[in-house]
Amino acid sequence: MKNKFNKFKILFIVALISITSIFSISSVNDDFEISKNLEIFATLYRELNQNYVDEVNPGELMKKAIDSMLESLDPYTNYIPESEMEDYTFMTTGEYGGVGALIHKKGDFVVISDPYEGFPAQKNDLRAGDIILEINGKSAKGKSTSDVSAMLKGQPGTTLTLLLKRSTEVKPIEKTITREEIKIDNIPFSGMVDDNIAYINLSGFTRNAGQEVKDAFLKIKAQHELKGLVLDLRDNGGGLLNEAVNIVNLFVEKGQLVVKTKGKIKDQNNVHSTLNPPVDLDIPLVILVDRGSASASEIVTGAIQDLDRGVIIGERTYGKGLVQNVVPLSYNSKLKVTVAKYYIPSGRCIQVIDYSHRNPDGSAGKVPDSLKSVFKTKNNRTVYDGGGIEPDIVMTPIEYSDISGAIIQEYLIFDYATQFKIDHPTIPEVKSFVITDEIFNDFVKFLGDKEYDYTTECEKNLKELKTNAEKEKYFDGFKTEYEALKTKMMHNKKSDLIKFKDEIKLLLKEEIVSRYYYQKGRIEAALLSDLQLKKAIEVLKDQTQYKAILNGTNKK
Known about the structure:
Pdz3 Domain; 2-enoyl-CoA Hydratase, Chain A, domain 1
């Protein structure tokens, strides 16, 4: 018996040594492959720099090599050189040193689009429509928006001098501006959208986003008797995961699982649960989402849906279920690397693109419907993984007409609003201001000598028909009919302006009120005609429908 035991013991030790050896060999092989390829790359890089026929920029060459390597993985794994650290800091904190204004390119120059209220640009009377001619004595002609943005940014307390062209001034005007720390609020607008319905627009998940939502909600709640809350996450691309957990925490019990992260390194897998007492467990809640709602927005949306705590309205969300960590590198650079996937309370991952499996051309495809799995919410409603968050009530946004797209693209509504502000120093508050027929007709007159054009879908289809018919030798047989149809179908700008008068009025109102009430005014004006918001208010007012959606008995 003892001999058998010793024999078994020896065999076990041998097996253990063999397994250990295999893992050791595997590890050694990995280390060797890394060392070998690093040496090859370093040799190639050095020889290329020394021997290539033209001068090369070693820094740019290395950046391109790193970016190409990371691009083969996923879009979220990025190299952040020291020169781009300020942009990275802004993404995570919402803070940067600068003047506080949105800009856009028009022609050869960059134009002020929207000064942020309360920051240096607005306090120094920079206005929407001002053309930036020079920055600190250097011409801005031909500069891109990113070039000008970099020149406007800098350490708080430093100054810069701008030479501007303004339509009301004969000569260029000069402004000396002291940069400040610019902190972009996560909540550009909040308030009441109905007698008893509160609304919070959350545009980001930078530091303190959870506290900002809490403060905004409690402030509204203290002043009104609420019967519902709309949290708007449309076009919110996400941010800090912990802020998503903090926001969910406002409306669910302490200790509730919100999201799990699972990656290759098991020791770094995390479970994120709510840590604090909730603010309000009972208030009916609607979350608005669209295709631009991603990452942290989807954690909040998915957790609220999985826990049957609120109704989701809008479009299917983006589908980003990947988690990134930032790793410090040499020379103050960093690597933002995907380390895990996240899983919301039902257990589903909503990542839509499978980057681990590439097509022959190198592209990555969406998770096919056949591979999507069924999961259950707290109330046993069916939900799916692999494709973003499907809203409880699906609503697509209004698509603007071709003529509206054309006049927006050419900044004609923008230019008219700039002139309108010159001609009208004040307007009523946002809710009372109306684009009258007189204003609309004045806009049409303004467009009279402006260049803009567009091609309708019908015109595109007709052109495609001609191309295919010519290719297949059929066109000569119906050329006369084609020309007649083309003449009849050709768009008429004046008739299209009248046909799409209502939507153009809405666009005019949003742009004009932003000249007086800045970004808050723009959002408030847009909400007045927002069909998804109107649906949210309807659902919150109809508690029978609201409860039926959450318990799965609602008839779609």
